[in-house]
Write a structure and sequence with these properties.
The complex is a heterodimer of chains A (189) and B (42). Chain A has one helix and 13 strands, in the order αβββββββββββββ. With 189 residues, chain A is mainly beta. Chain A has a single domain, classed as Jelly Rolls (Sandwich), CATH 2.60.120. In chain A, the strands form two sheets. An eight-stranded antiparallel sheet of chain A has the order 1-13-3-9-10-11-6-7, with no helix packed on it. In chain A, strands 2, 4, 5, 8 and 12 form a five-stranded antiparallel sheet that branches. A two-stranded antiparallel ribbon of chain B has the order 1-2. The N and C termini of chain B lie far apart (29 Å). Classes of the chains: A mainly beta (189), B alpha+beta (42). Chains A and B meet through strand 1, strand 2, strand 4, strand 5 and strand 6 of A and strand 1 of B.
Chain lengths: 189, 42
Amino acid sequence: MAVKTFTTGEVLTSADTNTYLANSGLVYVTTATATSGTTLNITNCFSSTFDNYRILISNYLAASGSAITVQLGTGSALASGYYWAGNYCSAYTASPTVIGYGGANENQFTTHIVCDNTNQCGSSIDIYGANQAIRTSLVVGGVDTRTSGNPRLALAGFQNSATQFTSLHFASGAVIGNLTVTVYGYRKA
Amino acid sequence: MNNLELIIGTFHDALTGETITRELTAEEIACLPESVEPLEPE
């Protein structure tokens, strides 16, 4: 979609509105919220309409020290293998020790996003090629808002298959108090 | 996953907008990841 510059007095048509305003940039796909249990499963969120997606996690609350994991899937079926990823995080100190974790052929992406039941955290995830017949890769940025915790985190990884995924699944290490996930698609043209 | 409450999941369909909460099936539970201790630097 090209950028159009409107001139003074020009009539804004419905076609221009639909093309240049309604469909610009990130396009909202869906929002899902869990307030109990340990998993949040979003089906039919990936399609051929978009190749790349921005996922926003907000107001995540769960028992202290629980890391959230991400899996891709087709419908309600989880893809439980071939996840390759690396993490790192540091402490809230002037000269922190940065530690990391990596894994190959694991059963999930482990984001190491951490919260507790009173200090909610947020995160953004970019997912590339989710519904294409190529490896799906992702980059995660998140935070630990516990003052006793550690600022987080970066994770980069990929799922080593050419599966055309349609769904996204989150699992918490503890019972979820709140987990809100919003999915946007990057408009292709 | 040794607590019945821990096998409850929320399912949201982006096409229909429908959200339900239900127990996971045995097949779904088998595909769940193991709990992972988060990174905790000194």
